[in-house]
Design brief:
Layout lengths: L3 H7 L4 H12 L1 H6 L7 E5 L5 E3 H17 L4 E4 L6 E2 L7 E9 L10 E9 L11 E7 L3 E6 L5 E5 L5 E5 L9 E4 L8 H12 L3 E2 L5 H11 L1 E5 L12 H14 L3 E3 L19 E4 L1 H9 L3
Parallel strand pairs: 3-5, 11-12, 11-13
Antiparallel strand pairs: 1-2, 3-4, 5-6, 6-7, 7-8, 8-9, 9-10, 13-15, 14-15
Bound molecules: 2,5-anhydro-1,6-di-O-phosphono-D-mannitol and magnesium ion.
């Protein structure tokens, strides 16, 4: 059985980066353990004006405290924080971007949710293609860690003894026909409606839970499409470029898939604001290329 630490060493991961990934992996257990005690909604709004679940705030506080104290991170940008958190005295120049608890509207109904992380060397506002590592924790029937340090994608499962053990390495995203789209059909744009209809006409099977991490994970394994599109009332979509699209897109790309805003590869977009939103299409390469070639 290969642990995540052994995997990182075998793949020649930079030592500080490996320690940081290991530190993040170690937080799966405390976060999972906090679910029962943090079931309600907080009275606070996050930077996007969304009501925070108690667990959103708990996971955010916890992760920031642990990372700040580690000396391994120079700055942290979180979906739950208005401002970038500076970490003086760090021994490295790593930036962590994170969505501490993604899919939090599903906590109360006990569906799978996750935590998303991207790690950059240097400043925050970089193209997703520059990520040194991207990873997510998925709290489902198993707790899993899906990781890329730029040499493919691997998934690990959390064992009873607290170690993450390798389940699958070299994951390749197949072409597939599972699909899920956020938003509502009356609000979708013409191009999005036509694209989804073409998938349905081709025998596509809808599977959408409302948790980006969980919905993406099945696309990673089975192929297909996850979309949170622009809508008539919300041209920028719902999900965030830096915290959600870049790390998940990096993992998709590393598995042979693609991420797009409908026109261009999201990994080539330089963010101008930490909290900016973007329409997201992520999934099998063939499907995303078909979308990009469609007329408006
Ligand atoms: P969150 O980060 O505040 O939890 O919001 C992101 C979530 C994604 O996990 C999910 O894909 C999407 O919002 C679901 O939105 P909707 O309920 O509109 O379908
Ligand atoms: Mg999120």
């Amino acid at each position: 059985m290969i642990t995540v630490q052994e995997y990182l060493r075998e793949h020649g991961c930079d030592e500080d980066l490996g320690r940081l990934i290991s530190l993040i992996a170690d937080q799966a257990d405390p976060i999972r353990g906090a679910f029962i005690a943090n079931q309600s909604y907080a009275t606070t709004l996050n930077s996007s004006g969304e009501v925070q679940a108690e667990l959103d705030a708990w996971a955010d506080d916890h992760l920031i405290r642990v990372m700040k104290g580690s000396g391994l991170v120079s700055r942290i940008a979180s979906e739950e924080q208005d401002e970038v958190v500076e970490c003086p005295g760090s021994c490295s120049d790593y930036t962590v971007v994170m969505d501490p608890l993604d899919g939090s509207s599903l906590i109360a109904v006990n569906l799978a949710v996750g935590s998303i992380f991207g790690i950059y060397k240097g400043p925050i506002l970089q193209k997703g293609r520059n990520l040194a590592a991207a990873l997510y924790l998925l709290y489902g029937p198993m707790t899993t860690l899906t990781l890329s340090i730029g040499s493919g994608v691997a998934t690990f499962a959390l064992a009873d003894d607290g170690r993450f053990l390798l389940m699958e390495d070299g994951i390749r995203m197949p072409e597939g026909s599972i699909y899920g789209s956020g938003g509502t059909r009356p609000e979708w744009t013409g191009k999005h409606t036509a694209f989804i209809t073409s998938i349905e006409d081709g025998g596509g099977k809808v599977r959408y839970s409302g948790s980006f991490v969980a919905d993406f994970h099945q696309i990673l394994k089975y192929g297909g499409l996850y979309a949170y599109p622009a809508s008539r009332g919300r041209p920028e979509g719902k999900l965030r470029l830096v915290f959600e699209a870049q790390p998940i897109g990096f993992l998709a790309m590393q598995a042979g898939g693609r991420i797009s805003d409908g026109f261009t590869d999201i990994l080539d977009i330089l963010p101008t604001d930490v909290h900016q939103k973007i329409p997201i299409y992520v999934g099998s390469r063939g499907l995303i290329e078909r979308l990009e070639s469609m007329e408006e």
